[in-house]
Design brief:
heterodimer, A: mainly alpha, 9 helices, extended, B: mainly alpha, 6 helices, about 70% helix, about 0% strand, elongated, disordered N terminus
Chain lengths: ~200, ~160
Amino acid sequence: MEPFLTILLIFMIIGSIIAIETKNLLSSVISCGVIGFSVSIAFLMLGAPDIAITQVVVAILILVILIRATITIDNTSIEAHWDTFAVVSSLIFFGLFLVFAFLAVQDLPRFGEPLMRVSKEYLATGPEKTGAANVVTSIILDFRGYDTLGEATVLFTSIVGAFVILRRRGRKRRTEEDTEKVGILMDKEIREDFEEFRE
Amino acid sequence: MATKPDLVSSESPKGMTQIVKTVVRFVMGIIFMFGCYIIVYGHLTPGGGFAGGVILACAYVILTLAFGKELSLGKMSDMACSILDNTCALLFVLVPLGGLFFGYFFLNYLGKGQLFHLFSAGTIPIYNIIIGLKVTSSLFAIFMALSIFGRFISKLVDEEEE
């Protein structure tokens, strides 16, 4: 199994390098999709079908949304520029990250030999305690319910924030007065009354 | 779809070509059913609320791409998305709060049932359905906000000003 995983990882690295380096935004988005599908195949080979399903579906949706958002922009290519300071500083930080990652990874358990202290208990008693045949669901929604609640809160907050930002741009262009009063959205009748009052 | 036959017909100028519309009309129900299956059987087979919700959101996205924005906005407007999202976020706190009557927060207080049966595992299928509806509405709202509000509403506003 490990040689296939290595090939997939190399494939993903090549795809991400292409996604960063290419000039065309559309091919960059498609390279991101390649990475997403490779990650899903890797999850499937590691025996995690739940996450593989989620990953493949999210990759499809993100690809559609990004292509839909990218094609509408007239300028689909980026100009290349060489910034010496950015390259040198990112190389230094990458080297520091490699050093600390090498120190930190030595304490981790080896690949394929996980520590089974907590998960052994979940695997043994999960079906009896929760009644769910899918152990992953029983852990996500019963043993670690607080985590899922936090996840749902994060999703809710991000969606609300994105919705507010994207909708206000559409509404703010109505009048000159609205652009002056940042954050105040007036109804049509109130605005007419306001204009009469000003006159 | 029967309520708005002018938008669904292949001769309608909105949306993509007739080939895409015909294929989408065949595939649409299967995608929707598969998403519902992934959500409802989340405690028995791989999948769950999040994956099934994204599949349902993909179904709405396909509908939007093939038939134009009027059909999908008639099926699920932005206000309906907001209400569904907020209701599910509230329900996901209220259903675990019911566990306080029996012991502690997030207690699985419904009957466990038999293993491998559809109606089993107490509150876990309810959580799955709530999360699925929430993910569907919020991801479709994001798709609409990025693809429709960003372009069309500003265009509409410009037309109003002229």
